[in-house]
Amino acid sequence: MKLKHYIVAMSAAVMLVGTGLTIAQTPQETAVKKLVEPRLADGIKVDSVTKTPYAGLYEVRVGSEVLYTDEKAQYLFIGNVIDAKNGVNYTKARTDDLSRVKFSDLPLESALKMVKGDGKRVIAVFEDPNCGYCKRLRKTLAGMDNITVYTFMYNILSEDSAVKSKNIWCSADRNKAWEDWMLNGKAAAPAQSNCVTPNDKILALGQKLRVNGTPAIFFADGSRVPGALDAKGLEEKFASLHNVKVN
């Protein structure tokens, strides 16, 4: 695949979103940005260029994606920078940081809420009602305790996803309707036409947060994990957050 085509595909996948922040750059970083931006695909805008402490590389940030170049922008490096001594993946650490959210800013009133046990362990999950991996995750969550799950019904997989979400949202017991569908394949009764849902709001939110697939799990520290974790993976993640300050 040609480099320009790769960058187009990459940027389309992450859905570029401005952060509203202005980051001061050194003259050299500004110069590298001016050199590298015209060499990317047409219309691709570089959010920032930052000199890294390794190998003389400059980080080129496009949305939440990261690539690298040299000081003359003659070469572009797409992939992970890993410390050969300790195995630390600097690129993953950086992209994880860029993809963090402020959990308290999520519109939780627009989500389904399930509480089990003391509910102290909190996650928010973006799920499509037609997503097989979401159903697998739902089975995992059903077997866990002491957890609060906020579910944003994120309709991106098929035309009737929004219909199914509306029927569930407009049910007398939303959580039961969601569980019945995701765990047992029992569809909710058709909603009345005047029932208002947050479907459009959640779709816009997911796009803003660059949620490109379901499920997507957000933890209380703002970190995210794309895909369906199993029970062991979730427990390990919760354990790692035990002493982390929630933002």
From TrEMBL:
It comes from the Bacteria. PANTHER family: THIOL:DISULFIDE INTERCHANGE PROTEIN DSBC, THIOL:DISULFIDE INTERCHANGE PROTEIN DSBC-RELATED. It is found in: Periplasm. This is Thiol:disulfide interchange protein. Residues 24-91 form the Disulphide bond isomerase DsbC/G N-terminal domain. Residues 115-236 form the Thioredoxin-like fold domain. Required for disulfide bond formation in some periplasmic proteins. Acts by transferring its disulfide bond to other proteins and is reduced in the process. Belongs to the thioredoxin family. DsbC subfamily.
